[in-house]
Design brief:
alpha/beta, binds ligand PTJ, Rossmann fold, about 10% strand
């Protein structure tokens, strides 16, 4: 792996890139996953690489939906396994009934096994979807291949870094879709019942943190309404602000920016 100095101002971001590139070389991440990551990074930059208040609200509500669900499923692809296998497992441990299912856009049997192995190495048990047992009708991509005991019968599905077609197909089956996607303009974000516009690892950690409170208030089968279009509008506004606020050179994207000042007379 490339050596990266911890003193580099973009150390964390470079390390994440290096980890994904290595995972792509090993076949866990699809080559297209590197492109998807670059797109996500750009949107996160606009947000200041932090969770905005509307994302926090969406995460608290999503924790309630997952807690109240009877058959919740978290769908895991190559990028998610490479970036956040531990975060996925911590959330599954905190959430009763939450099943983990491998679901790939660029599916090969080898990649499906690699994703499951990565989750198992992080402590996951009973990972579904390695050998799909059901096909979602009307969905042309490999994402249609799912597990009869998982996504096929889910009532709530958490879909990080997803594509819009599958989110729409899940909704047609009556499944409530929670997305995690930094792009508020993506078809996935626009299709989801509850879009979380936040970075994957931050979102998983926020869901886990909110889970004990959500479980304490559990009402099975109750899904408080979400304001999906309001959440997306807030994210778009936050990005516009992020793009127009001045930043000093070398300022980390998430740090406090100088307040706008009147020009000196
Ligand atoms: O492993 P596979 O075969 O299932 O393929 C996975 C990818 C990600 C390649 C596949 O699902 C894909 O092509 O996804 P898209 O259509 O590029 O969408 C991915 C979305 O995730 C984009 O809108 C990105 O902005 C967003 N994204 C990327 N990285 C992150 C992210 N959102 C949150 N956190 C991230 N770290």
């Amino acid at each position: 792996m490339t050596r990266i100095s911890p003193r580099h101002p973009r150390y964390q971001s470079l390390r994440t890139r290096a980890r994904l590139a290595e995972a792509a070389r090993r076949g866990l991440v699809a080559p297209e996953g590197l492109i998807a990551h670059g797109r996500g990074e750009a949107f996160d930059y606009f947000l200041g690489e932090r969770s905005i208040p509307s994302a926090r609200r969406a995460e608290r509500l999503a924790a309630r939906w997952l807690a109240n669900a009877e058959r919740p499923v978290l769908s895991v692809n190559g990028n998610v396994a490479a970036l956040a296998a531990e975060g996925v497992v911590r959330l599954a441990e905190a959430t009763p009934r939450l099943a983990l299912e491998v679901n790939l856009f660029h599916r090969t049997p080898g990649r499906a096994r690699a994703v499951a192995r990565r989750l198992e190495a992080a402590g996951a048990k009973g990972v579904l979807g390695v050998r799909p047992t059901y096909r979602i009708a009307g969905l042309p991509s490999d994402r249609a291949d799912v597990d009869r005991l998982g996504i096929a019968r889910a009532d709530v599905c958490l879909v990080p870094l997803e594509d819009g077609d599958r989110a729409a197909a899940l909704r047609r089956r009556g499944i409530r879709v929670i997305s995690i996607d930094l792009n508020p303009l993506s078809r996935t974000s626009e299709t989801a019942d509850l879009p979380i516009v936040d970075e994957l690892t931050r979102a998983l950690e926020a869901l886990r943190t909110a889970m004990p409170g959500a479980l304490a208030r559990r009402r099975a089968g109750h899904f408080p309404p979400s304001d999906a279009s309001g959440l997306l509008a807030s994210a778009r506004r936050a990005m516009v602000v992020g793009l127009t606020r001045p930043r000093g050179p070398g300022t980390p994207a998430g740090s406090r920016r100088p307040a706008l000042r009147r020009p000196a007379r």
